[in-house]
Write a structure and sequence with these properties.
Belongs to the periplasmic pilus chaperone family. This protein is mainly beta. 10% of the residues lie in helices and 45% in strands.
């Protein structure tokens, strides 16, 4: 019965997924870092709303539509389903179950927190037959970090190299190449060439040992490599940290 209820909650939420900006249940942090040496990691939730909520939590490997019972991840997460009263908190226990994961780079997973508010009173529903009860889902990144990786995550953004590339549709992009074993998430990127700037406020993430493109529109750059790239990356604590890379490879 509990499993059927859990799946029904998830199907409902994925059908009516809305922004978590109005959710009462809040995650303490914007990302989770699981150091391999740790026996377990705790994630704290709090209900900042004025009503109790039924909360379901699960992990996935990158598919936002994956059901909790369909996602195969090397972690246990408890409790998976619980009631959270207003102005109260709940700690989630996350334990790595030791299934093999790459030891030369970070692995990425996603933590989902689904909040279902209490059903409106019968009298309220009768007064407004068109009322709709919405569920709220928050989804944040979980990075599994093996022991002994070279360097550290705070240095990774400065080691990313940049160049302009032309895509098949004729538009240009700024390509970022990450040679480190860490994921690097940028919230803002500004490429400078002479008096011209190309800005990406959307940002994005570059996987370990991989490249990612950031659109700069249809304006052709003057050189293959920008004179300077100013950026803001997100550190382990969810804070934005600024930096810059010059054409000659100098990092500041």
């Amino acid at each position: 019965m509990r499993k059927k209820l859990s799946r029904a909650m998830t199907v409902f939420a994925l059908s009516w997924l809305v922004s978590s900006a109005h959710a009462g249940v809040v995650i303490s942090g914007t990302r989770v870092i699981y150091q391999a040496k740790e026996r377990e990691v705790t994630v704290k939730l709090s209900n900042e709303g004025d009503a109790p909520a039924l909360v379901q939590v699960w992990l996935d490997t990158g598919n936002p539509n994956a059901m909790p019972d369909e996602s195969k991840v090397p972690f246990t997460l408890s409790p998976p389903l619980f009631r959270l009263d207003p102005k109260k908190g709940q700690s989630l226990r996350l334990i790595y179950t030791q299934e093999p994961l790459p030891q030369d780079k970070e692995s990425l997973f996603w933590l989902n927190v689904l909040e279902v508010p209490p059903r409106a009173a019968a009298s309220t529903t009768a007064d407004d037959p068109n009322s709709l009860q919405l569920a709220f889902r928050s989804r944040i990144k979980l990075f599994f970090r093996p022991a002994g990786l070279p360097g550290n995550a705070d240095e990774a953004a400065a080691k990313v190299s940049w160049k302009f590339v032309r895509k098949d549709n004729g538009a240009y992009a700024l390509e970022a190449t990450n040679p480190t074993p860490y994921h690097v998430t940028f919230s803002k990127i500004v490429a400078n060439e002479g008096t011209t700037n190309w800005t990406s406020d959307k940002g994005g993430m570059v996987d370990p040992g991989a490249s990612a493109d950031f659109d700069i529109g249809n304006v052709a750059p003057l050189a293959d490599v920008p004179a300077q790239v100013d950026y803001t990356f997100i550190n382990d604590y969810g804070a934005g940290v600024t930096g810059k890379t010059l054409r000659d490879g100098t990092r500041k």
